[in-house]
Design a protein that fits this description.
disordered C terminus; Jelly Rolls; five-stranded antiparallel β-sheet; mainly beta; four-stranded antiparallel β-sheet; 2 helices
Length: 139
Amino acid sequence: MPTSEERLRPHPNTRDTRPVLSLDLSAAVRALEAEPQPATSGHRQISLLHRGPLRLLLFAFEAGGSLPAHHAPGQVVIQALTGRLEVTTPHGRSELGPGQVLVLEPELPHSVSAVVASQMLLTICLGLLGGDASPRPRA
């Protein structure tokens, strides 16, 4: 984990703590793409929100950029904002275009590849937000 001196930007916990937060995703992507450091594995990312169990991350992929296989401890929502993304899970491959969403159960391994330059909004919920506490059926 980088120290505060090594961070590219402030930790998301400290960026904005207002009770109502409005985000301009287009402006955030422009700022992300303008950062001077090189992209890692063909993508740049920024955590927009880190509050309680909720995480909101924005990704800007170059064509061919990818996230290697990984898993998250909570519900995952992948939303393609622009471009075309391929998401691979043990259950198959899904292709997402602008405005399309894929929801993954906790701990499901997945990888993401950008077929063309793409932007992605990722939401992770690490716990209940006051919703149904019943277990989800497994496929």
